[in-house]
Design goal:
Blueprint lengths: L4 E2 L5 E5 L3 E4 H22 L10 H25 L1 H6 L14 H19 L3 H26 L13 E2 L9 H14 L6 H6 L4 H10 L2 E2 L2 H23 L6 H18 L14 H22 L9
Helix pairs in contact: 1-2, 1-5, 2-4, 4-5, 5-9, 5-10, 6-8, 9-10, 10-11
């Protein structure tokens, strides 16, 4: 029997009170936008982008606000929490409660970049080819934040690096949760609530209690971060900087590669929504990204245009 790690990381870097502070998840977004700015400026200066270096900051700001944040939030409401959204549309604005969907963010970026390119009268496919190079950095940091938060955990596993995620108790049988709380409060009267147990999950007194009621699971957040983030960024960076490709090819590759890697990663992730046939919600939505990717590749071949460096 392995002594599996019990997840006890705090979602806060700095905390003020019970629910307010600087969260790792928010920092991941900030770091992602800063990385996208740096990558965008670098590509613009090397002649890969039709956006001037001094215009990259405004472009990334717009992409972050209207593409990633609004698109990601709306995508989560539509794809994963439609019932609550339909009952109370104002729940959309409760960002502090969490809930973002990468598929929604991707679609939001597609729409924003199309509008931006039309207004600036620059090739949309070129704009897309450069933003998709930076996108995997944000995906990687977002998955790291998911792991720190102990959310979107994996399926049960017996691999040596499996992890006990205490937030699994939120989805456990109520009777099982009640037994955990009774046992925990016997060890410490202050541990009589589920939030208190999760807050103190790293305490030795709770280890045996949690081990008896949790399943060791794949740290699927790390798997997805490495696949959708590190690996995909490496592929796109090499294609962008070392090959002469028509505008639109990189965007097509991103959609197809992200979809395939997301589908692979979902095999290790505990489904967080009802299945669609044999597919998880993330896998099902990724199938449409493959079709979009093929469409971008066809467009790139049918009417080829090139980055300024290759004109």
């Amino acid at each position: 029997m392995f002594a599996y790690y019990i997840h006890d990381l705090s979602p806060f870097l700095i905390r003020f009170g019970e629910t307010f502070g600087v969260r790792w998840y928010g920092l991941a977004y900030v770091a992602s936008f800063l990385a996208a700015y740096g990558i965008g400026v670098h590509l613009a200066r090397r002649g890969f982008s039709d956006i001037a270096p001094d215009a990259v900051a405004d472009f990334i700001t717009g992409t972050a606000l209207f593409g990633v944040i609004l698109g990601g939030r709306l995508g989560y409401m539509v794809f994963y929490d439609w019932a609550q959204f339909a009952a109370d549309p104002f729940v959309f604005f409760k960002f502090w409660e969490g809930g973002m969907a990468s598929h929604g963010g991707i679609l939001g970026i597609v729409i924003f970049t199309w509008i931006y390119a039309r207004r600036k009268k620059i090739p949309w496919l070129n704009v897309g080819d450069n933003i998709v190079v930076a996108a995997p950095v944000g995906l990687f940091l977002g998955r790291c934040a998911n792991f720190i938060n102990g959310e979107l955990y994996g399926r049960p596993a017996t691999v040596p690096w499996a992890v006990y995620f205490p937030k699994e108790l939120y989805a456990s049988d109520p009777e099982q949760v009640r037994e955990v709380l009774v046992t925990a409060s016997a060890a410490n009267p202050q541990w009589g609530t589920l939030d208190a147990v999760l807050e103190n999950a790293g305490r030795p007194e709770l280890r045996g209690i949690l081990e008896a009621n949790l399943s060791p699971r794949h740290p699927s957040q790390i798997y997805e971060g490495l696949l959708e983030g590190a690996l995909l960024f490496s592929i796109l960076w090499i294609l962008r900087t070392r090959f002469r490709l028509p505008d639109g090819v990189l965007t097509g590759v991103f959609f197809i590669a992200y979809a395939v890697l997301r589908i692979v990663g979902e095999f290790f992730r505990e489904p967080d929504a009802p299945l669609t046939g044999m597919f998880t919600r993330g896998q099902f939505l990724s199938l449409f990204l493959v079709l979009m990717g093929i469409g971008f590749l066809i467009a790139a071949k049918a009417r080829p245009t090139w980055a300024p460096k290759f004109r």
